[in-house]
Amino acid sequence: MNESELPIIDASALGGGTEAAWQALAVQVGSACREVGFFALMNHGIPQSLVDAAFGASAAFFAQPLARKQELAIGKLGSNRGYVGLGIEALDEKTPADRKEAFNLIWTDGRSRPPNAWPELPGFRAVMEDYFDRVLALGRMLHTVFARDLGLAPDFFADKLDRPLATLRLLHYPKGSAAPSGHQLGAGTHTDYGNVTLLATDRVAGLEVRRRDGEWIDVPALPGAFVCNIGDCLMRWTNDIYVSTPHRVREPLEERYSIAFFLDPNPDAQVSAIPSCVAEGTAPRHAPILAGDYLQQRFDSTYGSKK
Fold first, then answer.
1. How far, CA to CA in Å, does 227 sit from each of 112, 184, 306?
2. Which of 48, 91, 254, 287 lies 20 to 30 Å from 270, alpha-carbon distance?
């Protein structure tokens, strides 16, 4: 994917821009959400030193012996928390299981959701909690931009994201293929489930996006940026005005790390078409559904055959 194909958006207005700057940002983001479903966010306000520290902590986690990582396995912890080993996840059931390993951290208030489990690595928890809090704030602020673009009050999504099903995923793609036949993708073709994903990558490219004409195009490595994409819940909310675009990670010929933050709605948020997104005289494209029910359906399809 050339830079001309991936919208690269300056998000400086999020740090306190004028009303005109906010509106200009909303136009740029809205156009990207309608046409591509992906965009790169620059000058987003999260210090590069923190991003670097998060990648360092991630590498330290995955460098541990397998037995140590499996002590925090997602199958033991439940609630989408913990370690996901190689061959556990299949984002595309038509291809071999993904060649990646992951470690998941969830949003928790300490009451309604179980706490995260932490590896015994110096500084890991402090770095990840700081990173989680900052990227969550950025994701919520991005929703005020979506709201402006859609003609809504800027705080429209606020009460739908105050107890979010948010997940931070540390991802490691080991070099080489272990598939018994054919190639094994780092991550199979899929769309994301929730509202928006904010992805930080290392200097190794690998993400591919399928354009509407069916052609696969590369997303370049963009140090300092978040590669953002729309998920299925927000697509439903906008009555398919925003597009949730299929994407994948190609076979990892080089070792690769990324950190994905999935901002999904509160479980009891009703995902139903925003009235302004439904043309007069037409019906919404999707029936209303609670966000928690919808996301559980998607998780079941991903993990069901691999439990």
1. 31, 23, 29
2. 91
